[in-house]
Amino acid sequence: MQAIDRARPLRVGVAGLGRLGRRHAQNLAYRVPGATLAAACSPLEADLAWAREALPAARLYGEYADLLADQAVDAVWLVTPSALHAGQIVQALEAGKHVFCEKPLSLDVAECERVVNVSRRHAGRQVTIGFMRRFDPSYQDAYAKVQAGAIGRPFLVRSQTCDLNDPEGFFVRFAPTSGGIFLDCTVHDIDVARWLLGKPRATRVYAAGAIALHEGLRESGDVDNGVAICEFEGGRLAMFYASRTMAHGNDTSSEVIGTAGALAIGRIPRANRVDVYDATGVRSVCTPTFFDRFEEAFLIEAQAFVAEVAARKAGDAQKGSLGATLEDALEATRIGQALRESLHTGAAVTL
Amino acid sequence: MQAIDRARPLRVGVAGLGRLGRRHAQNLAYRVPGATLAAACSPLEADLAWAREALPAARLYGEYADLLADQAVDAVWLVTPSALHAGQIVQALEAGKHVFCEKPLSLDVAECERVVNVSRRHAGRQVTIGFMRRFDPSYQDAYAKVQAGAIGRPFLVRSQTCDLNDPEGFFVRFAPTSGGIFLDCTVHDIDVARWLLGKPRATRVYAAGAIALHEGLRESGDVDNGVAICEFEGGRLAMFYASRTMAHGNDTSSEVIGTAGALAIGRIPRANRVDVYDATGVRSVCTPTFFDRFEEAFLIEAQAFVAEVAARKAGDAQKGSLGATLEDALEATRIGQALRESLHTGAAVTL
Amino acid sequence: MQAIDRARPLRVGVAGLGRLGRRHAQNLAYRVPGATLAAACSPLEADLAWAREALPAARLYGEYADLLADQAVDAVWLVTPSALHAGQIVQALEAGKHVFCEKPLSLDVAECERVVNVSRRHAGRQVTIGFMRRFDPSYQDAYAKVQAGAIGRPFLVRSQTCDLNDPEGFFVRFAPTSGGIFLDCTVHDIDVARWLLGKPRATRVYAAGAIALHEGLRESGDVDNGVAICEFEGGRLAMFYASRTMAHGNDTSSEVIGTAGALAIGRIPRANRVDVYDATGVRSVCTPTFFDRFEEAFLIEAQAFVAEVAARKAGDAQKGSLGATLEDALEATRIGQALRESLHTGAAVTL
Amino acid sequence: MQAIDRARPLRVGVAGLGRLGRRHAQNLAYRVPGATLAAACSPLEADLAWAREALPAARLYGEYADLLADQAVDAVWLVTPSALHAGQIVQALEAGKHVFCEKPLSLDVAECERVVNVSRRHAGRQVTIGFMRRFDPSYQDAYAKVQAGAIGRPFLVRSQTCDLNDPEGFFVRFAPTSGGIFLDCTVHDIDVARWLLGKPRATRVYAAGAIALHEGLRESGDVDNGVAICEFEGGRLAMFYASRTMAHGNDTSSEVIGTAGALAIGRIPRANRVDVYDATGVRSVCTPTFFDRFEEAFLIEAQAFVAEVAARKAGDAQKGSLGATLEDALEATRIGQALRESLHTGAAVTL
Q1: pLDDT tens profile C147-181
Q2: Cβ distance of D212 and C260 shorter than 8 Å
């Protein structure tokens, strides 16, 4: 973050002020050196009321178009519904903004490809898709160790995204539009696997699933527990597991196995450094939600985006983005869609 | 072990005195109350010489037929090459012996079925196939907790058999006859999964693999790292991983996930209760081989076999065998062969 | 942090810009909502040069008196040499400032008492001594659990402060003025023990020590490994361990044991959530220094100070400070001095 | 165990058939190659009735004198009340037997010395005091690593013996004769510390304690939680903790810290390799009693005794006993008594 210019901060406008949008906005407003939260927009009055209180320095808009028209905004930060992401990225690029967009880019492969194509005409702009797991310090450390050769040649990733069971079944109502468990959850593991394995292309996938608790998923063709295998070019492999029904907390973990060793990230999803000793044994309390687990990653992700834009401005040779590119996001959607197809057909899907 | 009659011990004859056979023989000779090692046989003079020294009380034979003809042998213990198992079990049953046989029953499904059929005519005899993992105290504890409802309804097992890399590649030379990684290693995980999930039948499997280090496997169509998904009737699932290339030791572990919790067995393959603190961090040294990991299981397995024969003799109601039955072994081979087929065809295999 | 008034932030002046002072200054400048870093002072030109670059918004002074004279400074933040703390706190209170001061208050009990007495005349001012461990999220969680009765009545604390061995022996040169291992390191454990046990007074202590590696300590009567027992009123106990010679990292941990359970904080000093699997076993890399271990605690400590001053201003009923008071710091010094005396005399010291 | 002669086994007679005596007797009867349980004695008819059933091959006696008179007994195994140990060892030596005796040798230092003196006249006999912890495989591994120099020069041991709280307070009734918590429990930690540190002599000790739950201990001057420091010659140190009031199980652990690293044994007292995931977090169930924790150690201890007698017989150069000698037991009692004195006087005790 050498290149950060505190005197000329990156002026960011956040679009979308739901639960996650508010977190991003507060990070950008108060915790990211080199950035200012210049503006925010939401179509909901409740969100704007919250923003007037919590983000007093930001200009507030009801319309995304107005945010884009604000010439004192350098970058937009999209935390809007997934279905809007692709279109809003294109608009932002055409308005000359840098773009950070929450995952997923789009559930539709063709639409992902369209955004990739548009972005090629705006090569001067930074575009990052928010696969925040890459910025978690433990994932960062594992990535650095892999790059340094600590495990030889990495050839297998095992990765899971498992949520604490929500008896209310929020995600059941969300199932018709979420794309299902693989596109909603496993997409993170897909990105982690490709990132740790050197960004290979997938060649074939297979998926299976079960409904353990939430029968309501059946009508949208979704499951609450899914397992998958993904084969990549060059004999590299991944195994994925996603669950909505954990009893103990949000349990997100990954392993990368190489020819000379392995690394596990987050083997026990402990909330902190406390162990409790009582009549049930010795236990670690677990992180309840991905917010708790990845709070720090969301912040570092924002700091990294600002640093990368600053590096661009300073003309630094691009060493490749740390965050997920549009191409990475396209590949994640392509694989996620193939997993979904495999779940439905019971057959392996060749890519 | 109430029913054990020390005055009239079970007289066991071991066939096969290789590395594992010797361990079984010593357990039976010195560590299994209610059993005596009455006899042993091996076609190799070196084995017999070892036995004369280590097993002075046992009658020694060069031929299996002579062991079977020994009327003072109640049970045979087969630790012979896998290809001989099926035939030797049939012969033993026909000679009126109880039979313990190391896994696998056979790599051939039809041959497994034939043995199952023969055994139906000898219902008074105990026949157990040596899936020793079931007898490991931690697996036993997990099984008991599942039976007691501690995790609700179990629906997913993840299980792995991972060996310390052998740079000599012993298993490479063994590959043409071992049946490959899934029939040699994963067969244990298949048995564990079915056992923990209530012995369901498999409906469909998919497998993939990679050669990380041992190129010599290519000509026998084998891999040194394999991953697989197995779907069972009733929406139950399993994920398997097998590896020949671990850097840290033999890492055999399993998880069973239910609707109200989960159990993990052997998450860190620590050799013992020691943690080492040094400049590299805080570490657990790992079990180097499956012998080290399952030494106790091999012993308890033998004790359980003797207790089950004693219970039969005492006319105790059969509550079902704790060890793997011939039917369990048949199903393990059936699934293992389907995994092998899937690895070779790249397609899911319906059972 | 309800009471934070972003429009009227607390204006802080940092005194002392060494390694730790710089960290505090950057936290206050960029990471503490409700605070601004208004000023900083150091007698060293190198520090001021650093500050001109890193803290462009702060007014810089060479003299502490000038910082105190700055009417646009509401609170001073003392990260100066320990010997100056007591005098500077008194001066700051007399200048009408709130005060945060790094530990220790003073190595001299009488001087601690003098500051306590002065502070009684300035009850409207917030004074906190920087025992940052209290603000670490895991220590916070343990404290909350104790308060909630999770372990019954707490009666024993075991706590340690162990540093990675420094072959250069920086602390050896520092030994003549540091007060020795118990006043320099164990003082944190003393504060933690009293805090978790309900702030009892000590009645008797005993200490012993050894020089494992750093013979240079002998002439100042210090040791590089010290152990101690502290008895408190009401049958409460503490055991302390301090070391300068760890091979694996900074290993700071504490346990609190109660009549119905126990809590351990930081049992393994893992740097992050990564486990490394290699030929040496499975290991966690450790936090190298207390900076790495307590980075977050230093920040939360600053945020809490600002929130407490804001709460005072808002007239909120004082529920007692979360941070260490002057009385806490006095008691820590009193106990630390008794430990030192016990180490030198070989006899228990009654307080 | 090279020297074991299966044809001429060591003929052992067990004295005392309480809970622990029965375990020793069964180990010797069925699980120790090279030994036979030739005889057993107990003054209680219930014990003898149990033995007739469980140990059919043993000659049974009501009087210890008759056991000693049995010429077909080579070694006696004392699991009698502690107060009888010293006298019975002397009698056994005078009858020409080898002796294994459960700890403690005696609570009286002078009596310990007397036995040591008597034993010097019977140098051909093996005498081992049952500090079984030395034979636990993890303690063995740590000892071997220390001997191999893995942690440099060891200078500090921290060791604890903590029992699951017994609401019935069996040990309260036992307190008047047990010698109190340090002589009953910590004596194991004393032996471990000396063993790992190279058998140094203690120079000074200090102890303190608290009654957390069992007020009934007050009248016998005992506590249910005790802490202690022990200084040894050569600047070596130990810290001890003993408790009768743990909520989670028997938690026996030790650490040995050296100039180049450290080893921890039994950091988490997990019952086995299972982790339970449920709404309370991720937990290990703990070993409930020392029987569960040290079952294997009791067996290996017996095997080692038999091997050492066999080695003596074979004229092997004595490399020093692995088990505790009478001199070790004397030193443990000397230190334990000093701890008790320190607890009562509140002063350090010089040895």
Answers
A1: 999 999 999 999 999 999 999 888 888 888 889 99
A2: no
Q: D164 to chain A: nearest residue by CA?
A: A279
ipTM value: 0.94
Q: Do D281 and A277 touch (CB under 8 A)?
A: no
Of the candidates C204, C211, C259, which has its C-beta nearest D213's C-beta?
C259
Contacts with B206 from chain A: Cβ below 8 Å: 206, 208, 229, 348
In contact, C75 and C11? CB cutoff 8 Å: yes
SS3 A43: coil
Partners of B156 on chain A (C-beta within 8 Å) are 210, 212, 225, 227
Q: Does A198 touch chain C (CB under 8 A)?
A: no
Q: Say yes or no for a CB contact (<8 Å) between D274 and B30.
A: no
Q: Show Cβ contacts of residue B275 under 8 Å, excluding neighbours closer than 6 positions.
A: B282, B283, B284, C268, D263, D264, D265, D267
Largest pairwise CA distance in chain A: 63
Q: Tell me if D208 and C211 make a contact (CB, 8 A cut-off).
A: no
d(CA C282, CA D263): 15
Read off the pLDDT of residues A55-98 as tens digits, 9 standing for 90 and up: 999 999 999 999 999 999 999 999 999 999 999 999 999 999 99
C-beta atoms of C272 and A6 within 8 A:
no
Domains in chain A: ranges and CATH = 10-133+295-324 (3.40.50.720), 137-290+332-350 (3.30.360.10)
How do residues B184-214 score in pLDDT, each as one tens digit? Answer: 999 999 999 999 999 999 999 999 999 999 9
Interface membership of B1 toward D (CB under 8 Å): no
For D118, list phi and psi in degrees, rounded to 5. Answer: -60, -45
Counts for chain A of helices (H) and strands (E), in that order: 11, 15
Torsional sign, CA C114, C115, C118, C119: negative
Hey, what amino acid is at B322? L
Integer Cα distance of D317 and D312 in angstroms: 8
∠ CA A202-A207-A213, nearest 5°, is 140
Order of strands across the sheet that contains B75-78: B59-61, B35-41, B10-15, B75-78, B98-102, B127-130
Beta-strand ranges (E) seen in chain C are 10-15, 35-41, 59-61, 75-78, 98-102, 127-130, 154-164, 202-210, 225-232, 236-246, 251-258, 261-265, 270-278, 281-286, 349-350
B211 neighbors B218 (Cβ within 8 angstroms):
yes
- Give the separation between CA D28 and CA D24, rounded to whole angstroms: 6
Asked if the C-beta of C272 comes within 8 angstroms of chain A's C-beta atoms, the answer is yes
Collect all residues with Cβ–Cβ distance below 8 Å to A326 and sequence separation of at least 6: A89, A105, A112, A115, A116, A119, A127, A129
Helices (H), C182-289: 187-196
**Look-up: residue for tokens 């932030």?**
C9
Q: Which chains touch C (3 or more CB pairs under 8 A)?
A: A, B, D
Rounded Cα distance between D4 and B30, Å, is: 13
* Pairwise CA distance, residues B1 & B5, whole Å: 9
CA atoms within 13 A on the CB side of C81: 8
B282 touches chain C (CB under 8 A): yes
Give mean pLDDT, residues B235-249.
Answer: 97
Planar angle of CA C226, C231, C236, nearest 5 degrees? 125
**Which residue is it, tokens 């180490």?**
C343
Q: Which of residues 137-176 of B touch A (CB under 8 A)?
A: 151, 153, 155-156, 158
Q: Tell whether A210 lies on the interface with C, counting CB pairs under 8 A.
A: no
C260 in reach of chain A (CB within 8 A): yes
Closest Cα in chain B to A157: B227
Among residues of chain D, what percentage have pLDDT more than 90?
A: 89
- From the list D264, D108, D131, D137, the residue with the least C-alpha distance to D188 is D131
Peptide bond into B43 cis (omega under 30): no
